[in-house]
Write a structure and sequence with these properties.
Layout (H helix, E strand, L loop, with lengths): L9 H23 L3 H10 L14 H15 L4 H12 L13 H14 L2 H12 L4 H20 L5 H27 L2
Helix pairs in contact: 1-2, 1-5, 2-4, 3-4, 4-5, 5-8, 6-7, 7-8
The structure holds fe (ii) ion (2 copies).
Length: 189
């Protein structure tokens, strides 16, 4: 589903992101005693709906959940684990408004996705956007906004301490780089 095609070069990026989310899942599951294979597989599948949702990317978790459910049923995955995995995939885009009955496992699918969304590759992408052909004034505005957003991500509820620590580490590295850029832009005013 995430194989690259000439019309969708972004899918190879999505595939590699899914592998990194699955690596995060192995670390979180191991440290927190969560079902490791289930969390790894849920993370591998969490963005599989991107091809189906065309331009409305906000809907991709629902497509991912549908595709994953059919696939896991087809290979005879244990139903209880399947339900948890599909629910976690369907809700992986939620930020601060988590349903009361969302389990630690379900939240962990979204946490492992977020850890990668704030890793060095995504930080490099963001830094490029913050500075590319921008004036000092514009750089100050974009970097300040990115720092606020990283601080907000660190303040969100997480399923486990391990995920929180991993996200905090990535966000702090990102904020430190943004602050260095801010300092240079401020000097140039
Ligand atoms: Fe996603
Ligand atoms: Fe993702």
């Amino acid at each position: 589903m995430l194989g690259p095609t000439p019309d969708r070069g972004d899918l190879l990026y999505r595939y590699e992101h899914s592998l990194r989310a699955a690596e995060n899942a192995a670390v979180v599951a191991e440290a927190e005693g969560l079902p490791k294979d289930d969390l790894i597989i849920a993370c591998l599948l969490h963005d599989v709906g991107y091809r189906e949702c065309r331009d409305d990317f906000r809907r991709h978790p629902f497509f991912s959940a549908d595709i994953s459910k059919s696939y896991l049923e087809k290979i005879g995955y244990p139903p209880e684990a399947l339900r948890e995995m599909v629910k976690g995939i369907a809700l992986h885009n939620l930020t601060d408004d988590l349903p009361k009955d969302m389990t630690v496992f379900q939240i962990s699918v979204r946490d492992c996705d977020d850890i990668d969304r704030f890793d060095m590759i995504r930080t490099a992408m963001l830094l490029g956007d913050c500075v590319n052909e921008k004036t000092n004034q514009e750089i100050i505005a974009s970097c300040s906004q990115a720092i606020d957003s990283a601080n907000w991500i660190m303040s969100l509820p997480r399923g486990t301490r391990t995920a929180q620590d991993m996200i905090n580490e990535n966000c702090r590295k990102r904020i430190a780089l943004l602050q260095d850029i801010l300092a240079q832009a401020n000097k140039g005013l």
